[in-house]
């Protein structure tokens, strides 16, 4: 007899859940802490900030392409230990050597190393739950992991700002490093089954499965639309977020704690969106949920363009923007992930998921670069206006395409089939997130 959903957090899965809690909190706090340090502590230019942000996301391209099919053969416990302890060591380099002449170069190296290691560990983590729980508990287990990711979305940005305000860069990064170290130490005791390697004499091609998954995504009419929209949205959204950090600190005069708090409210919107998707949103037609969710996520950032007034008003407007944005994007994600799972043959889910990460998350780094360059070349307000307008245009094209495919989508994901019994999409949502959220 299988255990009830409430008993999932036990045994080896509880240990893995705690590892992910420490690792995700540490990684997501560092994701905002390092740019805040670059702005407030080092006074970097907009272009350099965009470059630093990009370095935290570009590695997903190489990791997804090169290692998408490798974790079936490798010792995953060793992968976790190396990645998490590597993150811890990289973060400690900043307080130890971050006051010298080459401190910006050091930050470049740390951001690059963390980008590689976080992408590596997150992709490895997607292969673990089926080894720890029976098949009928997989949705409940993924729901518990999704709680960790949502918790990071809600708490990590605010925690990053508060750590910087309260302790400064050195002690703050030491705390984050300790969390990553705890994840690595806990991983030492994680027992995972070894998987069968390639046949003797076979030449492994770890990238071939990912390339095959790309072809599958881009040839299927429904998955092509959702994948292209996810890539465009992530590209433009990261450009907006890079400009927003500079705008909020330098023009609005907000403290790092206040900036982090506005983004944290966006994380609360993702939690609310998950609750609605499990309730009324789960009974909504898939096309309506996709269009409504992406519309809220793409159009709401216009409020940032028109924000003005005193600091309390600016904080309120930014917080409201990110809350509505997070709500809409979560509603979209639940149905988009379910569509991808139902349209993909079970034997190809791994390669298609790796391909999706490459196509949808790869553009995030380019968006960060573009946002930093545009902020310095066009000015912060002008560049924010341009990127927000492009988000609206991309949404309009997506809405028309989705409505044209209404019959096809309805046949695959009819009303009420958006989520599993816990209100979680019947797939393991990707844990890589930027700012409040990204299309899964």
Describe this structure in words.
Helix content is 74%, strand content 0%. By secondary structure, it is mainly α. The protein has a single domain, classed as MFS general substrate transporter like domains (Growth Hormone, Chain: A, Up-down Bundle), CATH 1.20.1250.20. Helix 10 runs parallel beside helix 15 (349-361). The radius of gyration is 21 Å and the shape is globular. The two termini are 33 Å apart.
Key structural traits:
about 450 residues, mainly alpha, Growth Hormone, Chain: A, 18 helices, about 0% strand
The biggest sheet, with number of strands, parallel, antiparallel or mixed sense and barrel status, is: none
Shape: globular
Q: What structural class do you assign from the helix and strand content?
A: mainly alpha
The CATH superfamily turns out to be MFS general substrate transporter like domains
In short:
The protein is mostly helical.
Which secondary structure elements does this structure contain, and how are they paired or packed?
Layout: H1 11-41, H2 46-55, H3 59-67, H4 76-97, H5 103-125, H6 129-132, H7 138-167, H8 169-187, H9 208-219, H10 221-251, H11 256-278, H12 286-299, H13 302-306, H14 311-343, H15 349-361, H16 363-377, H17 380-404, H18 406-412
Helix pairs in contact: 1-5, 1-7, 1-8, 2-5, 2-10, 2-16, 3-5, 3-15, 4-5, 4-8, 7-8, 7-11, 9-10, 9-15, 10-15, 10-16, 10-17, 11-14, 12-14, 12-17, 16-17
């Amino acid at each position: 007899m299988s255990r009830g959903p409430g008993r999932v957090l036990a045994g080896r899965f509880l240990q893995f859940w705690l590892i992910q809690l420490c690792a995700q909190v540490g990684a997501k706090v560092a994701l905002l802490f390092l740019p805040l340090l670059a702005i407030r502590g080092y006074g970097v230019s907009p272009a350099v900030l965009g470059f630093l942000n990009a370095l935290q996301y570009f590695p997903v391209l190489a990791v997804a392409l090169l290692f998408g099919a490798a974790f079936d053969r490798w010792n995953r416990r060793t992968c976790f230990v190396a990645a998490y302890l590597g993150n811890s060591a990289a973060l400690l380099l900043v307080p130890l050597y971050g006051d010298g002449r080459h401190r910006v170069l050091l930050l470049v190296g740390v951001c690059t190393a963390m980008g590689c290691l976080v992408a590596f560990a997150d992709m490895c983590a997607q292969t673990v739950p089926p080894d720890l729980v029976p098949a009928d508990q997989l949705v409940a287990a993924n729901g518990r992991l999704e709680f960790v990711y949502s918790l990071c979305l809600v708490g990590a940005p605010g925690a990053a700002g508060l750590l910087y305000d309260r302790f400064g860069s050195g002690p703050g990064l030491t705390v984050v490093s300790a969390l990553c170290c705890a994840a690595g130490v806990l991983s030492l005791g994680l027992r995972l089954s070894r998987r069968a390697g390639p046949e003797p004499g076979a030449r492994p091609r770890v990238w071939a499965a990912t390339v095959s998954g790309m072809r599958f995504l881009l040839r299927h009419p429904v998955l092509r639309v959702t994948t292209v929209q996810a890539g465009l949205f992530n590209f433009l959204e990261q450009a907006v977020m890079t400009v927003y950090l500079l705008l909020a600190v330098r023009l609005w005069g907000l403290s790092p704690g206040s900036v982090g708090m506005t983004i944290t409210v966006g994380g609360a919107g993702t939690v609310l969106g998950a609750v609605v998707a499990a309730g009324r949103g789960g009974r909504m037609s898939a096309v309506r949920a996709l269009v409504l969710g992406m519309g809220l996520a793409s159009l709401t950032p216009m409020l940032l363009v028109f924000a003005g007034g005193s600091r309390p008003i600016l904080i309120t407007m930014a917080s409201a923007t990110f809350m509505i944005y997070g709500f809409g994007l979560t509603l979209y994600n639940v149905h988009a992930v379910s569509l991808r799972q139902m349209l993909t043959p079970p034997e190809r889910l791994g390669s298609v998921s790796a391909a999706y990460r490459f196509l949808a998350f790869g553009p995030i780094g380019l968006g960060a670069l573009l946002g930093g360059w545009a902020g310095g070349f066009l000015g912060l307000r002008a560049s924010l206006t341009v990127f927000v307008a492009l988000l609206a245009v991309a949404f309009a094209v997506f809405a028309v395409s989705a409505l044209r495919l209404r019959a096809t989508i309805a046949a695959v994901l009819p009303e009420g089939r958006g989520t599993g019994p816990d209100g979680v999409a019947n797939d393991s949502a990707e844990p890589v997130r930027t700012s409040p959220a990204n299309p899964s």
